Amino acid sequence: MIAHEPAAKRDHSRLMVLERGSQGIEHKRFFNILDHLGPGDLLVLNDTRVIPANLVGFKAEGGAKIEVLLTKPLDLERKTFVCLVRPGKRLKVGSRVIFGDGDLVGTVLEKLADGEQVIEFEVHGDFWSIVHGLGEVPLPPYINSKIQAPNSKQIPSSKSQLSKRYQTVYAKQDGASAAPTAGLHFTPELLEKVKAKGVEIAYLTLHTGLATFRPVWAENIEEHRMHAEQFEVPEQTIEAVQKAKRVVAVGTTVVRALEAIWGKGRGTRGETDLFIYPGYEFKIVDAMITNFHWPKSTLIMLVCAFAGRDFVMQAYQEAIRENYRLFSFGDAMLIL
Q1: Burial class of residue 71 (count of CB atoms within 10 Å of its CB; 0-12, 13-18, 19+)
Q2: Is residue 108 one of the residues assigned to a domain?
Q3: Does 149 have pLDDT greater than 60?
Q4: Per-residue DSSP letter, 178
Q5: How deeply is 32 buried, as exposed, middle or buried, from its count of CB atoms within 10 A (0-12, 13-18, 19+)?
Q6: Pairing mode, strands 65-75 and 14-19
Q7: Number of CB atoms found within 10 A of residue 86's CB
Q8: N or C, which terminus of the chain has less Cβ within 10 Å?
Q9: Distance in angstroms (rounded) separating the CA atoms of residues 56 and 310
Q10: Could you tell me if residue 140 is inside a domain?
Q11: In a domain, 97, yes or no
């Protein structure tokens, strides 16, 4: 049931509508989101942009091929990132990796306990221009561009075509290594129709990292620790939240960022490792749009905290019966 390619049109994905009060479930198309939004609502979007974080280089000593995935910016001024490296054992602290013609050189500063490495990049020119020239947008590892859905009339997309669709139409702030996938369904035209209904739209930034998608292995979920992710909520967004009749978060990243700034009252930037699971009391978010998530992930736990575990499990069984397409390029869910 994994969606290996996006819908032909972004806003033609299917939409499962969950009504928490009545425990009702409806089946619609994503563009029908307009039926459930109205004046006084605030739609909050995450404008992070997925960077071409997959880089291939060669070890300065010996010339071995090294693949580096930028998973989290630590210090953009120093061009320092947490990275996944393959093969990681070939590098030690102080090892240098050369990318392209040497316009970008990475030096390992630290090897972390979970297998990631801290790498500082030396750059000859504009950092982001060089990364965009050398790197590739990382697609989730479970997506196979050679697989086509049964009865599909679409031609399987190339990896480069898929990479273009693995970006929201309003992506602006470079820094993510994974897309905030709930927003992939919006088109510029649909957003204009949302505004025409009297719905205000606001933005925040949370740079989604791969850690968000890692499964929870702890037997007791309270022992699980989220990796911190960088976020910024502008002051105008906080003001819009305070005035809104209903706050509709587009994606679990928006939910976490908004809930993390509760009580601060001003434009806020920083990191959050907020882990939301059943029992959490929501302070800001009234409704949310999300995709379907992997079992045992922090994402499905957040959704269960919002809508109730039994109701969410019922909805997933309904999705299976109705042949919904799942995960990053899959269908969406609106929880009211």
Answers
A1: buried
A2: yes
A3: no
A4: S
A5: middle
A6: unpaired
A7: 12
A8: N
A9: 44
A10: no
A11: yes
Same domain, 117 and 229: no
Q: Do 182 and 315 lie in a common domain?
A: yes
For residue 155, pLDDT over 50 is answered with no
- What does the alpha-carbon distance between residue 210 and residue 141 come to, in Å, rounded to a whole number? 11
DSSP, res 33 = G
Range(s) of the domain holding residue 33: 10-50+147-335
- Give the residues across from 57 on adjacent strands: 66, 99
Write down which residue in 107, 134, 161 finishes a domain: 134
Number of domains the chain contains: 2
**pTM for the structure as a whole:** 0.90
Calpha distance 96→253 (Å, rounded):
34
- CATH number of the structural domain spanning residue 318: 3.40.1780.10
Closest CA to 60 of 14, 107, 13: 107
- Res. 148: pLDDT tops 70: no
Q: List all residues 6 or more positions away from 271 whose beta carbon is below 8 Å from its beta carbon.
A: 228, 229, 230, 231
Considering only 15-29, 144-158, 269-283, which range has the smallest mean pLDDT?
A: 144-158
Structure tokens given for 44: 């909050």
Residue bearing tokens 């509709």: 248
Asked whether the CA dihedral 141, 142, 147, 153 is positive or negative, the reply is negative
